[in-house]
Amino acid sequence: MEEALDKLLGARFAGDATAPLQKFLDGYANRPELAPKTREFYGHVKSHLAKLGSKPLIDVEWFDVTQTLDEIGGRGRTAQAARSMLASIFEENFACGMLPRNPMKAAKPVKYRRANKQRAFTMEEVGFLLEALHQPPFNRLEAMVILALTTSMGPAELYGLRRCDLNLGAGELTVNHNLIRPAENEYRAMLAPTKEEQRERPLALPEGTVAALREHLRREGKLLAEGDGSEFVFTSPDGHPIDHSNLSAKWWKPLLEKAAQIAREADPLFRFRTNMGMYALRHTAQAIGSRSGVGMDVIAERMGHASIETTKRHYFDAHALDRQRDAADRIGAYLTSLRRAQ
């Protein structure tokens, strides 16, 4: 009995097993050590477990878990996170003696493998993308794309950028926040630190990016708004904080379609990919930095990675494709020489 009590006191997700599972899910998803974006992600995962969460913890059976994970279906990462949450909760309560059995032992595992796809635009695609940005209405947020491509800032960091974060006279800015929308109130935007261990990230800007930002602020009537330090640099047309879903549907996807049209007009055989998300700009910025001769340590610093190993693990070697093309040219030239010799 004393051993079980000690386990319970030291447990993080254990408690009265007659309480609804939702109570335990809330405790798991709102751990104080989690970064804001991670808590936001777990909030979305919880929304897929709402039906199961209404049941008392002790009444949840393995087939309930299996059915729920099946209903999540093709959302591989979400299903994997949901199973991880449930496994931690049930394993701890079983170990503490709060449950007579652990239903997760019989629940089927979730197989998830990240698709091995190109996550960055090619340099040719970047050219067509920049050309499309010069045309209305896409030019309204042209500076945001240029900023992403030259700084490796992610979408949430771009949305959360404020006037007080800019120092255009010195050609620099500071990344301080992400703009997020909590799962419990997705219509309320709020600023959250980019990372728990790194509150801000200073970034030097190329002259062209500074010029693009100045033009954007002038066009939006914000260039002289020095007194309002909380004003966002990039907003919706009505001045509200950017909603990623709306921006993606009403601006980003049409921009890609326009770039694809320009590409077809320039070369009917060129295939511009229109299924890329905005986060691809961050990956593309890493490739541009690598091709420009910037060291991996500096790229990691600009991306806000605590370790260069993170950069190496998640981002491809931008020179690899160049080496492959060089190899293809050499092989093709050699084959041509053999054909002429015959």
Feature tags:
342 residues; mainly alpha; DNA polymerase, domain 1; hpI Integrase, Chain A; 2 domains; three-stranded antiparallel β-sheet; two-stranded antiparallel sheet; 5 strands; 52% helix; globular
Please specify the SSE layout and strand pairing:
Layout: H1 2-10, H2 21-29, H3 36-47, H4 50-53, H5 62-72, H6 76-95, H7 123-133, H8 142-151, H9 155-159, E1 166-167, E2 172-175, E3 177-180, E4 190-193, E5 201-204, H10 207-219, H11 244-266, H12 280-291, H13 296-303, H14 308-314, H15 318-341
Antiparallel strand pairs: 1-2, 2-5, 3-4
- If classified by CATH, what would the architecture of the largest domain be? Orthogonal Bundle
- Count up the domains: 2
Number of discrete helical segments: 15
Total E-strand runs? 5
* CATH top level class name of the largest domain: Mainly Alpha
- 3D shape: globular
Average pLDDT value? 80
User: Helices and strands, in N-to-C order?
Assistant: HHHHHHHHHEEEEEHHHHHH
* Class based on secondary structure composition and strand pairing: mainly alpha
CATH superfamily of the largest domain: Intergrase catalytic core
Strands of the biggest beta sheet: in what spatial order? 1-2-5
- Straight-line distance between termini: 89 Å
Helix-residue proportion? 40-55%
Major beta sheet summary: 3 strands, antiparallel
Contiguous runs where pLDDT drops below 50 for at least 5 residues: 4-9, 225-229
- Strand fraction equals 5-15%
Radius of gyration (Å) = 25 Å
The CATH topology assignment of the largest domain is: hpI Integrase, Chain A
